[in-house]
Amino acid sequence: MKDYEIFEHTADLGVRVYGRDLQTLFKNAAVALFSLVVDSCPPQEKEITVKLEVKTLEDLLLNWLNELISVFFTYKFLPSGYNIHISKEEPYILRATLKGAGYDPYSQKVNTEIKAATYHGLKIEEVPEGFKAEIIFDV
User: What is the pTM of this model?
Assistant: First the structure.
């Protein structure tokens, strides 16, 4: 099973993400996001922790991706490693440790500036191989 694939969407970008479990799905969504933003992943020299709590898995995925975008632009931190734990029932709680490095906008190019993950077309499905999600990013 592939980790993700990018598809065209009117004026935006879409990704189809796959994972054998929810943690892998959320990790692959993060990897897909940053593959659009930059060319390479930094060494893992810093850590940031993230905790989110919501009522639906779709909300959790959307909040996760938007939190990553916020961490990238606010703290100039580019994650490249993800240790994710997700509770299996409502309320859904995500706890993650992000490993990565500082991002210098003057020496590293942003390929695609992603403003946010959106609710448009957002869905998570259980499939025979695990999970599949579709996400549209506002660029």
Answer: 0.94
Query: Per-residue pLDDT tens for 27-51?
Result: 999 999 999 998 877 677 899 999 9
99-122 core/surface letters (b: 16 or more CB in 10 A; e: else): bbbebeeeeeeeeeebeebbeeeb
Please state, as a whole number, how many other Cβ atoms lie within 10 Å of the Cβ of residue 36.
16
Q: How far is CA 2 from the centre of its chain?
A: 16
Backbone angles phi, psi at 5, to 5 degrees: -145, 145
CATH number at residue 10: 3.55.10.10
Instruction: Please state the domain count of the chain.
Output: 1
Residues 77, 72: Cα–Cα separation, whole Å: 5
Residue 83: other Cβ atoms inside 10 A: 13
